[in-house]
Design goal:
single chain; mainly alpha; elongated
Length: 96
């Protein structure tokens, strides 16, 4: 029982560290824009800025959809390969 609690507490700490790291990284991602894109977007009107935002939104839909589909298939088949074979499924090799 103590090992179970210790394992779960370590898992909780690991997940908490990953979440904190993910929350800390977005400010670094904002600084990755190139100067040409930044100056073009800054000099553009409100209409072009709205078009850029909607284009970014449209471009993110397919990867997120594929990620969701992959996660669902992985979840549904999580025990497919890990199950132990039963006695009926075992293959016996004939003696040479």
């Amino acid at each position: 029982m103590k090992e179970f609690i210790k394992e779960n507490s370590l898992r909780f700490v690991a997940v908490a560290c990953i979440v904190l790291l993910a929350l800390a990284l977005p400010p670094l991602a904002y600084s990755q824009g190139c100067s040409l894109c930044y100056t073009q977007a800054a000099s553009a009107g409100a209409r072009l800025i709205r078009a850029l935002k909607s284009g970014i939104f449209v471009l993110i839909i397919p990867p997120l959809s594929l990620l969701g589909l992959f996660a669902r298939l992985t979840y549904l088949r999580r025990n497919y390969f890990g199950s132990s074979p039963s006695a009926d499924d075992s293959v016996t090799d004939p003696a040479p």
